[in-house]
Write a structure and sequence with these properties.
By secondary structure, the protein is of the alpha/beta class. The chain has two domains: 1-32, no CATH class; 77-181, Glycogen Phosphorylase B (Rossmann fold, 3-Layer(aba) Sandwich), CATH 3.40.50. The protein has helices at 8-20, 39-42, 46-55, 58-70, 89-94, 107-121, 162-172; strands spanning 79-82, 99-106, 136-137, 146-147, 177-181. The strands form two sheets. It has a three-stranded parallel sheet. Strands 3-4 form a two-stranded antiparallel ribbon. Strand 1, helix 5 and strand 2 (99-106) form a beta-alpha-beta unit. The longest helix has 15 residues, at 107-121. The chain is globular, with a radius of gyration of 19 Å.
């Protein structure tokens, strides 16, 4: 699995990071899954395409975890997934390994995503109905209420990214924790 990938700059960067850290951190470069170039794909929403691309890499991730487990001097103590790769939490669950989400955006945006998911799932409210209104939302972590009209436009568009944002926030809750940027705006 540790062969040089197509992107040599990425490979060199991860090798540099690995050599700069303790031996407890290991980077594994997965081979790229072969995308399906059908006509059907060209008509799909880009967010759905990304989700399907990540999904197509699950088997490669399983193989990498098995390789690490079978390596005598290694132990998998957790799996950290990028905020766009939350479907890989399924692989961690299969191996009974705790997963953490790396969320490089701000803690404020994370709070908004999680609260929009609560509003949608628990309160059964359609957040898109707040578009262009003066409705203010109580968002845990914010000192003041947040005007709904300042939410990311995709969350307020019935055909935007709301469904994906809510599904992603649900997956965040399945992880053991979230590594978040507390200094971002």
């Amino acid at each position: 699995m540790d062969t040089i990938p197509d992107n040599k700059h990425l490979y060199n960067y991860t090798q540099l990071l690995q050599s700069a850290t303790t031996s407890r951190l290991r980077f594994i470069n997965l081979h790229r899954a072969q995308p399906n170039h059908s006509e059907e794909l060209k008509s799909k929403d880009p967010a759905i395409l990304v989700t399907e691309l990540i999904e197509s890499h699950k088997q490669l991730m399983r193989e990498a975890v098995i390789e690490i487990i079978n390596f005598k001097s290694s132990q998998v103590t957790s799996i950290i997934v990028d905020m766009f790769c939350v479907n890989m939490i399924d692989v961690a669950v299969e191996f009974r390994i705790p997963s953490y989400v790396f969320f490089p955006s701000s803690a404020g945006f994370l709070a908004i995503m999680l609260q929009v998911q609560v509003i949608t799932d628990e309160f059964k409210q359609d957040i898109t109905e707040y578009k262009d209104t003066d409705k203010e939302l109580l968002i845990p972590g914010f000192l003041n209420q947040v005007p709904a009209k300042v939410l990311p436009s995709g969350m307020l568009d019935k055909h935007g990214t709301l469904d994906l944002d809510v599904a992603t926030a649900r997956r965040f809750r399945e992880s053991k924790g979230i590594i978040v940027n507390i200094h971002g705006a």
